[in-house]
Design a protein that fits this description.
The chain is mainly α. It has ten helices and two strands, in the order H-E-E-H-H-H-H-H-H-H-H-H. The C terminus is likely disordered.
Length: 204
């Protein structure tokens, strides 16, 4: 009987060791990379950003060569106002094999918050190049229009008013302003602020 118990224990240990190579072992079971990423996004969508970051960190520990855990971690840090950490995760993620538009979009918003307007526009443009109809699917109600608006704001803050106007008109094709006047530049700023509130946004 004792020999049987020893053999059973050895089999159990072997099982856990093999399982541990492909997943995180917790009291609730064994979770794969995909499980942890899914749980991370679920927590993110529910607004629980610390829990989301924890799940993405666990997924990253399982596989440091896949981009989605870094992407989720970057977004989570962004929502927790840890901008430097968000940039770090997005930077690493960009060198992975499977970066997505979500990566570059999140990075663009973080860089805007850091007042790095030129690089924010570069990342927003990269996101749109990867997915011209980009939409963020995890509870923040963001889409390609928000990237156009982000570029409009960035261009305005860089003093590139004509480029800013082009981006605004991607969202509201009826808007126009005489940028040769102080009044026109002020009107452009007011339109950007109006669009940021989501009031009566129209477009092509």
């Amino acid at each position: 009987m004792r020999r049987m118990n020893i053999v059973s224990n050895l089999i159990a240990v072997l099982f856990w060791l093999i399982a541990g190579c492909n997943g995180i072992i917790t009291q609730d079971g064994i979770f794969s990379y995909e499980d942890l990423v899914r749980q991370g996004w679920e927590a993110f969508q529910n607004g629980n950003y610390p829990e989301a970051s924890g799940k993405f960190l666990e997924a990253k520990e399982l596989n440091i060569n896949r981009a989605e855990s870094f992407t989720g971690l970057g977004w989570s840090y962004f929502k927790m106002d840890s901008l430097a950490n968000a940039v770090k995760e997005f930077s690493i993620c960009a060198s992975q094999n499977d970066p997505t538009a979500d990566l570059h979009a999140g990075w663009a918003f973080v860089l805007n918050a850091q007042k790095d307007y030129s690089n924010s526009n570069l990342r927003a443009t990269e996101a749109l190049a990867l997915d011209s109809l980009w939409r963020f699917d995890y509870g923040l109600f963001l889409d390609q229009g928000d990237l156009f608006l982000l570029r409009a704001e960035n261009y305005y803050l860089l003093g590139l008013f004509y480029q800013s106007l082009v981006e605004v008109q991607r969202i509201n094709a009826t808007f126009t302003a005489n940028l040769g006047t102080a009044e026109g530049i002020a009107a452009l700023a007011a339109e950007i602020e109006r669009l940021k509130t989501g009031d009566e946004i129209t477009g092509p």
